[in-house]
Design brief:
This protein has 165 residues and is an alpha+beta fold. It has one domain: Gcn5-related N-acetyltransferase (GNAT) (Aminopeptidase, 3-Layer(aba) Sandwich). It contains 5 helices and 6 strands; from the N terminus they run βααβββαβααβ. A 6-stranded mixed beta sheet has the order 1-2-3-4-5-6, sandwiched between helices. β4, α3 and β5 form a beta-alpha-beta unit. Bound molecules: acetyl coenzyme *A. Acetyl coenzyme *A binds next to β4, α3, β5 and α4.
């Protein structure tokens, strides 16, 4: 199992994985317009942390880092159907947190969680209480009808994953 983070950088293998991830999102998030999913996954200001198993993508998180504001917005998150409830979603989020803190310099994540995913986000340390000052995020992220607005504050020191020795 590998956890790799890429954006649309023109590298063939990365494109293949991003298209695979886009297909997982389209299937797992049936209420999202497919064109909207493609647009954000392929948009160069978004990045995707992906789980690669036997060189196939089995899940991922697409997010937009607002580096100047030091927060990221999670747009989509899904694990392919036959790999759910194996702990992959938790490991994926931990890899995202580590990468966002150490490589992007972010301190928080915001997301509009689907109602059926609110429980998952709670378990990953997200809350409905938004502690970031409004002027840090207002005007940066789009208002979205439906879904629960949630925040996660990243710990400045906690090791979220076991780093290779
Ligand atoms: N509601 C409540 N708890 C959940 C849910 C849920 N929908 N999904 C998983 N959990 C729990 C698990 O029981 C587990 O609890 P435990 O640690 O006490 O055992 C914990 O959350 C983590 O489970 P994982 O196995 O790590 O989660 P999984 O790999 O199945 O991934 C995910 C979770 C990504 C939500 C997956 O179920 C999925 O792809 N769902 C469909 C797509 C979806 O809803 N995506 C989120 C939409 S919101 C958005 O994209 C911003």
């Amino acid at each position: 199992l590998k956890f790799l983070c890429y954006s649309n950088d023109g590298v063939d293998q990365h494109m293949i994985w991003l298209i695979g991830l886009k297909n997982i999102f389209a299937r797992q998030l049936p209420n999202m317009p497919k064109e909207y999913i493609v647009r954000l996954v392929m948009d160069r200001s978004h990045k995707s942390m992906m789980i690669i198993k036997n060189s196939q993508v089995v899940g991922g998180i697409t997010y937009r880092p607002y580096v100047s504001q030091r927060f990221g917005e999670i747009a989509f998150l899904a694990i392919t159907a036959d790999e759910q409830v194996k702990g992959y979603g938790t490991r994926l989020m931990n890899h995202l947190k580590q990468h966002a803190r150490d490589d992007d310099g972010l301190t928080h994540f915001l997301t509009y969680a689907d109602n059926n995913a609110v429980g998952y986000f709670f378990k990953q340390g997200f809350t409905k209480e938004i502690t970031m000052e409004k002027d840090r995020w207002q005007g940066y992220i789009k208002d979205y009808d439906g879904g629960t607005f949630m925040e996660c504050q990243l710990d400045s020191k906690l090791p979220y994953i076991d780093l290779p020795a």
